[in-house]
Amino acid sequence: MYPSRFGYEAPKTVEEAIAILDAHGGEAKILAGGQSLVPMMKLRFASPEMLVDLNTIAGLDFHRVDADGSIHIGALCRHEDLEKSEVIKKSQPTIAAAASLVADPIVRARGTFVGSVCHADPQGDWAAALTALGGHIVAQGPKGTRDIAMKDFVIGPFQNTLAFNEIAIEAVIPAPKGIARGGYLKLERRVGDFATASVAVSLDMVGDTVARAGIALAGVGGRTIDATAAASVLNGKKLTAENISLAAAAVAAAAEPRTDHRGSADYKRQIVKTFVERILTGLATPSQKAA
Amino acid sequence: MTSLYDEVAPTPAADVPTRRITLNVNGEDRTVDVEPRLLLAHLIRQGLKMTGTHTGCDTTNCGACTILFEGRPIKSCTMLAVQADGHNIETVEGMASASELHPIQEGFKEEHGLHCGFCTPGMMLAAKALLAENPDPTEDEIRWALSGNLCRCTGYQNIVKSVLWAAKKMRAESN
Ligand SMILES: Cc1cc2nc3c(=O)[nH]c(=O)nc-3n(C[C@H](O)[C@H](O)[C@H](O)COP(=O)(O)OP(=O)(O)OC[C@H]3O[C@@H](n4cnc5c(N)ncnc54)[C@H](O)[C@@H]3O)c2cc1C
Ligand code: FES
Ligand code: FES
Asked: Looking at the DSSP assignment, which residues form a beta bridge with residue A179?
């Protein structure tokens, strides 16, 4: 299998890449890790006229924690970079838990975090994680940069709100209001498969109290699901058994699973409910559990 | 040299834009003209006539086409040949010297790490990347590192043993 014909440019700067996108008026596409785009082009689900390769642009492969506690992930930071990252292990439990569950090790060596978020696959792990974390994308276009909150970024299956001449140059996770806790659980049929169902949880804790909660789901709807009702059950509360089961019920209600070869709708709804309970129970301190 | 899809045409149509790229394959610089849509796996197999790199699924799932790109494993069916411009790649043909097998190849021989051998080149290169980073991996670490490479024959047991064998030999050699 091979893609239909296209032009290829390997710019050296983001500005140059934007100019090429701009000149092609919507017929050009960004190539990041290529782990979703190249397979789609081989199947001719995508046939862009021009590919703009980001891999020749220096300085986009970073991920770092700033002094204010916010985390910045550059457009060429690969899944594997996050999986092996000491700073992520120390500072961001949701990302740390998800990193080794994305695809397989060889895909992880090439695919990028930002590319995955842009791809907006309803089964994608990173869009769910970044949504739970209340993160945003920094988009750069001909007129400069703008921030797009995750809730406004992924608007449907494989649909994001970048303009045709904009590039997502980094993803940002805001500084936690307190201590960052969280987790990620994914059910897959075998290693390397997409999620049958998965749950991302992010909690900012001040003492025993949840200062901010975010919960997002992958694989159980036509797009990444931001379970805001479930998160608001926890805001300002303690992780008591009662609050946990209220949140889990709200997550089950937010899921919109469909029966397919990975499982029945009921099964998937049960899975996300169980996963939320498991993550939250694991994060609750003994005193909270007793409360 | 010109490499295009055999299926498309033996020589490029006059109006197809090609790019001249130079990549280093197993230590040797190769300069080729490629159409942007040529996949690296196809350049290696059809263009450079190195058929040790296999294409199994052609859908990024099986890992038979795994090669090392700047030392990291990649699925060569999912990278464009033009993207290798200026880069080093290593294929299974680069593992053995004229007189000696690479310890990983020896391990696969000693521990019967292959049946049909279709997955073997990809397995060995993924193992090579692992051992470069982690010379003394546990069985679990080997299974994890090879989890992107599918084998339809062996049941994986002997593949894992082969990599353990190679790791031991390579550690002994480096002491
Ligand atoms: C076998 C296999 C298993 C997989 N399993 C999983 C899994 O379990 N979970 C999961 O989440 N993913 C999975 N994936 C997908 C993988 O994570 C991809 O790496 C990811 O979806 C896309 O990232 P990429 O860098 O490869 O992007 P590309 O494929 O290069 O691009 C994807 C899309 O995003 C656009 N894009 C990329 N970067 C930018 C940018 N900076 N600005 C604007 N647009 C951009 C591209 O134009 C394209 O439309 C799997 C893939 C394979 C092949
Ligand atoms: S042929 Fe490339 S992954 Fe199967
Ligand atoms: S030995 Fe036959 S596929 Fe692995």
From this structure: A205
B94, two tokens: 């680069």
Residues touching ligand 3 (Cβ under 6 Å) are B 114-119, 151-154
d(CA A168, CA B25): 33
Residue A248 has pLDDT above 60, yes or no: yes
Chain B closest-CA separation from residue A101 CA (Å): 11
The pLDDT value recorded for residue A205 is: 96
- Which three-class secondary structure state does DSSP give residue A159? strand
Tell me what the mean pLDDT of segment A178-195 comes to. 93
Give the phi and the psi of residue A198 in degrees, each rounded to 5.
-150, 160
DSSP result, A109-142: TT-BHHHHHHHT-TT-HHHHHHHHTT-EEEEEET
pTM of the model: 0.96
Counting Cα atoms < 13 Å in the Cβ hemisphere of A81 gives 18
Percent of chain A with pLDDT over 70: 99
What fold characterizes domain B103-174? DNA polymerase; domain 1 (1.10.150)
In CATH, the architecture of A63-173 is: 2-Layer Sandwich (3.30)
CB B66 within 8 A of CB B149: yes
Instruction: Please give the CATH topology (third level) of the domain spanning B19-94.
Output: Ubiquitin-like (UB roll) (3.10.20)
From-to residues of CATH 3.10.20.30 in chain B: 19-94
Q: Which ligand is nearest to the CA of A122?
A: 1
Chain A residues within an 8 Å CB radius of B8: 2
Averaged confidence pLDDT in chain A: 96
For B127, the 3-state DSSP assignment is helix
CATH topology of domain A179-286: Enolase-like; domain 1 (3.30.390)
pLDDT in tens, B48-91: 999 999 999 999 999 999 999 999 999 999 999 999 999 999 99
- What is this model's ipTM? 0.92
Q: What is the DSSP letter of A238?
A: B
**DSSP code at position A60:** -
Residues of chain B with pLDDT below 50 are 1-3, 6-10
Tell me whether A26 touches chain B (CB under 8 Å): no
Q: How far apart are the first and last CA of chain B?
A: 44
